[in-house]
Amino acid sequence: MAVRRGSPIDRRFAVSAARPEITISRLSTNTIIFVDAWGKPEQRFDLDQLISLPVDLRDLLIDAFREHCAGQRLATRRTAWGAVRRFARFVADDGMIRQAGDVNTAAIGRYVLWLRKEGASRAARGAHAIAFDLLRPLLLWCRRNRPGVLPVSLDIPWNAFPGRRTSQQPRRRLSADHIKAILRACYEEIDEAWTRFQHGQDVIRRPELPPKTLRGQGLDRWIWRIARIDDGMMPDVAALEEHGIKSSTLVKYWGGSRTMTQYFHITTDTLVPFFLAIAIQTAANPEALRHIRRDCLVPHPLDEHRVIIDWTKARTGSRLQKAQRRTFDRRRRYAAPNLIEMMLAMTAPITATAPSAEQDKLFLTRSIFREHARGSLRSRTGTIEHSVLRRAILRFTKRANCRIEEWNAAHPDRPREAITNFAPALFRGTVATEHYRASGGDVLVAQSLLNHASVATTESYLKGEETTRFQRQTIARLQETMIAWVRGPAGGEPAPASGETRATVLFGHDCLAPVVSGREGGERLCPHFGGCLACPGLVIPIDPEHLARILAAKDRLEQARIRLDPRRWSLLYAPSWKILTQDILPDFPSEMHEAARKLAANMPALPELE
What we know:
Blueprint: E1 31-35, E2 41-46, H1 55-68, H2 74-94, H3 105-121, H4 127-145, H5 176-204, H6 219-227, H7 237-242, H8 247-254, H9 257-261, H10 268-282, H11 286-290, E3 297-299, E4 306-312, E5 323-329, H12 336-351, E6 364-366, H13 371-374, E7 381-383, H14 386-410, H15 425-438, H16 443-450, H17 455-462, H18 465-487, E8 505-506, E9 509-510, E10 515-517, E11 523-525, H19 544-563, H20 566-572, H21 574-584, H22 593-602
Antiparallel strand pairs: 1-2, 3-4, 4-5, 6-7, 8-9, 10-11
Helix pairs in contact: 1-4, 2-4, 3-4, 5-10, 10-12, 10-14, 15-16, 16-17, 19-21, 19-22
C-alpha cells in the first residue's frame, strides 16, 4: 500500500515581516501611556530612563513591555518597568551588549551573576529573583514576535535562583495584645468618623440655612453653605476662596479642610481604621482588600444573622480566580459587614465622581486638590493608592499613641501599651497563627482561613519559633498517648470491661483527641469529630474484635445504600464506605475475616442510618 509522504502541516501562526510596526521612537512623545477600558490615561512611563540601552534593544524591550503588560495591574506593571530599568543598568555596567543580537545565553548568565552580586549588596531580599522573573517573559515575547532579532540559540533559564527561599526568615508576627490595641484604636476612630458623617448628612439635608449660634456662624451653617458649592462634596481650597470661605477660618475654628471633609464623605484618615479593622477580621491580603468591590456582601443561605463577605485575589490562579469568602455574625457591633455598610454610606457621595473602572470599588477616597495641582494622571476620586494608605497608617498610629498617652495620664493604674509601627501585610500571618494555636495545631484550619490551595503556602505563614515549639509539644503529647495505649493499663489498674464502649468509638476505632484546645485554655469538641476515618492520626488495632465492628459498619452502610436515595447516600456515606473497604479492610489478614464474622453475628446490631 502506498503511503503518501509529504511535508508536515505548519500550524504555527505566521508573523508577517511586512507588518507596519509603530515604535516609540516614531511617536511624538517619549512616554508610554496606558489607558483604562474607557480610554482614559491611567499610567505612564518615561522612556528616557532606558537611555543607556542600545537603540534597537531599547525599541525591542519597549514594544515587549507595551504589548505584554497592557493587561496587567498597575502595581505589576510598575514592578515590571523596574525590572527593565535594572536590566538597562546591567547593560551599562557590562559594556559588552552593543546591539540586540548580543543578548545571548552568555549575556543572560552575566546578568544573573550581576543580579546576585547586587542582591547581596543592597537590593531587598528576593528582589533580584523577581527582576529576572519579570524580564524573562519580555525576552520570550521578543523572540516569539520579532524573530531574527535575538539569537536563535538564546537559552533563558526558568529558575535562575534556586533555593532562594531556603534561608528566608520567618514572617514577623504581631502579638495578640498588639492586635487588640490596633482594633481598639480603630473602633474609637470609627465611632468618631461615623458620628461626624451622620451629623453632616443631617445638616446637608436641611432645606434652609441653620440659625446662627451665640458665638458666630456655628458649625452647622458652615457645613450647609459648603455643601451647596459642590453638590454635597467638600470642594478644594480655590473653590472655597471663590465663595468667600477662607481656609484659615476652617483651620482656626474647625480643624481645617481634613476635619471638615469628614462631615461630607470619606477621607483618607477616616478610611484607615475601617481598612485595618476589616483586614484583621477577614485576614485578607491587603492588596486584594484594597480592590474589594462594593457588592461584596452576600446574604447567608441558612442563617439570617450571618453575612458572607466575598472578594477575589488576583494571584489565586492564572486562569480561574478562587473566590475568597468569610462569614460573620452581623449582630456584633463592629463585625466586618457592619463596617462595610458604613463604608458604603460614607463613600456614596463621591462614587459618581470616580473613574468608570473604579466606581464599583469600596475603598474610594477623594483628594482635596484638583488634578492639575497634583500632577497625576489619576482622577481626583479613586481607589486609595498603596503609598497614600501607608502614609495614612503612620498618621493613624501617631493619633492612637497620643490618645494612649492621654489615657495613661488619666488612668495610671491601668496603663496601655503604645502601638508600634506595623504594616497590614502582617495581619494575615498573625491571624492565621492565632487560629492555628486555637485549633490545637491543625494546619488545615489555617489553610481554610487563608484560602490557600496548598498547605505548603500556609506553612510559610505559620513558620516561626512559637509554632515550631507548639508542633513539637503536640507531637510529644500524641506520642505519649500512643505509647500509653500500646502498653495498656498499668498493673495496679483494672482492665476496662469488654462490653464497655466509650462514646468516642466510631466504626470500631478510638479517637485519640475528641476534644481540642480552645481559646483561653479551654476545650471544645473537635470540629472534625465524626469524620475520623479520614484522620491522619487514626489508630486501628489489627485484631478480630475491631475487624468485627468494621465489618458490621460496612454491612450497615451497604444496607443503607439500598434503602436511601442514591444521591444522598453518595454524598453522605460513600466517602466512609470507600475508606473502610479500600483503605482499612485490606490491612487485615484474610484468615481473620471468618472469626470476625462470627463475632459480628453475636454483636448488638448497629443503629439504622436514618
